Amino acid sequence: MIQKIEELSMNALPALSTVFLNGWILRFANGYSKRANSVNPIYPCSTDTEKNIEICESLFRKNHLATVFKLTECTEAYKIDEILQGKGYVYEAKTNVMLKNISKFQIKEQSKKNAVIYKGFKDDWFEAFVHMNQISYPNAVTLHKMLQCIVPDTYYGYILEDGKIAAVALGVAERGYVGVYDVGVHKEKRRRGLGMKIMEDLIYTALQDGCTHSYLQVVDSNEEAKALYEKLGYEKQYSYWYRVKNLGK
Fold this sequence. Notes:
The chain is of the alpha+beta class. 34% of the residues lie in helices and 32% in strands. The chain folds into two domains: 2-95 and 240-245; 103-211, Gcn5-related N-acetyltransferase (GNAT) (Aminopeptidase, 3-Layer(aba) Sandwich). The two termini are 35 Å apart. Keywords: Acyltransferase, Transferase.
């Protein structure tokens, strides 16, 4: 299951460049997000692990990026984690991957009217997301390119209030699983359940298109978000974390 969800999540947010290195997947996207700028050892290394790490470090240095490893709860990753710790890599951002069976998911008819779901990229969704998260112009340019590169089916959802976008969410569907990403609510519209509403509508739309499961990722320390997702029926499947070696170290 871990390998499958990791594949789905990489397809859901494509890097701008990808290198396949002896079983590991190296992703590069101008430094926008650790997830899209990291080494992903989701398959066994076919050569010496420490030698592979050295090659990774050289490639990230070449791209003027910190070397970042995204590691999951599997035997291979734990071994790599121990090596990286010995090399001075810093542990960061433990994140939980949560899963929900949506085959019997239902929402009230009234709730279906609260959100608009588009099956394809929407400029107004993107502009609202960038504004809500105060993303810098260079990072916004990179993110725009990444979103345009998504191959699986996409669902760009938002809730309108007074003619303005109050909440957004992105869904990416593949192999019967819809990943829910980038849930955001305007700072003046929070604590009114809009995040839950947009997620419910997005999940319902994906269900109508044949999806049977939904997954998402939440930082382990974000207790409020975890409580929301658990209320929606999501259950933790596994965790991942990052090991980071900054430039010059």
